[in-house]
Amino acid sequence: MTDRYAVIGNPVDHSLSPRIHAAFAARAREDIEYGRLEAPTDGFAGAAHRFFAEGGQGLNVTLPFKLDAWQWVDSHDDAAAASGAVNTIVVDGNAKRGCNTDGIGLIRDLLDNLGWHLDGARTLVLGAGGAAQGVIEPLKRGGAVDVTIANRTQSKAEALAARFDVASAGLGEVGGGWDVILNATAAGLAGTGGLVAPEVVADGRCYDLFYALDGATPFCRWAADQGAKEVSDGLGMLIEQAAAAFLLWRGVRPDTGGIEKALRSSA
Question: How far apart, in whole angstroms, are the C-alpha atoms of residue 214 and residue 209?
Fold first, then answer.
C-alpha cells in the first residue's frame, strides 16, 4: 500500500517538495505518494485533521503554518520544542508529533554543501517569524557568536532574542562587521532585496532561507551588488531539511547528491 505524504502551506503550488521527495523515494526504493495541500490561511487545523483522517502518514509544513502546526500537534521533538515552530508532522501511534528539521537542513547546507564556517562567526538573522525560530538554536550549537536577530518590528525581535538568549535590533539599527547574514524574512519573495544598510552585508557571507531556481533571489542579488563575499539561496537547505523529514517518516536517510543541480537545470 502506498503511503501518502504532502506539504501544507498557502500558497503551495510553487513547492518543489513533491519533486524532491519523489527523487528520494526512487533512490531509497520507498513506495510513497507526495502531494501539495493548500489550506486557507485560517484553516490549518481542519486541513491537517482531514489529511490524517483520510490516511495521510506525514506532513511537511511551510509558510504560513509553522506556528499553527506547533500548536496543533500532540507532542514535540527537541528541535520543535526549542524553536516553537514545526515543519514536519509524524504519525506517532494515535498521536501526531511535531518536529523541526529546518535547523539541521540549514547547518548541513552551510557546512557540508557550501563549505562555510560557523565556528566563531558573527551571525545576523533578519526576521523574527517561524523561519527564523527554527534556525537560531542550531546556529548557536554550530558555533556562531554574537547572534543577533533584526526585525522590522523590533518588539518581535526582542521577544525572540530573549527566548534564545541572543541580541536584537531593528533593521535600521544594524551596523557592519558580520561574517554570516541570513535572510529569514518573506520580504524577499516580494522583490525586496535591500532590507538593511549596504555595509551590513559587505564582506559577509549572505544566505537566503528562501530560494529561486536560478539562485538569484532579490536578497542574494542585492547582497552580491553590495560586495558580499558569497551568496546562496536556500534550495540546498530545502533539500536537506526534506531529507531529514524523510528519515523521520521512513527510517531511511536518502542520498541528496545531485538533486539541487537537477532542480536548477530543469528551471
Answer: 14
* Active-site residue, selected from the candidate residues 66, 140, 229, 261: 66
pLDDT (tens place) for every residue of the chain, 267 residues total = 899 999 999 999 999 999 999 999 999 999 999 999 999 999 999 999 999 999 999 999 998 999 999 999 999 999 999 989 899 999 999 999 999 999 999 999 999 999 999 999 999 999 998 789 889 999 999 999 999 999 999 999 999 999 999 999 999 999 999 999 999 997 766 666 788 999 999 999 999 999 999 888 999 999 999 999 999 999 999 999 999 999 999 999 999 999 999 999 986
Q: Give me the count of residues in the chain.
A: 267
Known catalytic residue: 156?
no
Number of CB atoms found within 10 A of residue 221's CB? 18
DSSP 256: -
Find all residues with CB under 8 Å of 144, minimum gap 6, and list them: 118, 121, 122, 123, 180
Q: Say yes or no: do domains 3-100+236-265 and 103-233 share a fold.
A: yes
For the chain, the structural domain boundaries read 3-100+236-265, 103-233
Helix 17-28 vs helix 235-250: crossing angle, to nearest 10: 50
Q: Which of the listed CATH numbers 2.10.70.10, 3.40.50.150, 3.40.50.10860, 3.90.1300.10 matches domain 3-100+236-265?
A: 3.40.50.10860
For residue 77, count other CB atoms closer than 10 A to its CB.
18
Distance, in Å, from the CA atom of 262 to the CA atom of 53, rounded to the nearest integer, reads 35
Fold of 103-233: Rossmann fold (3.40.50)
Q: State the cell numbers at 240.
A: 536537506
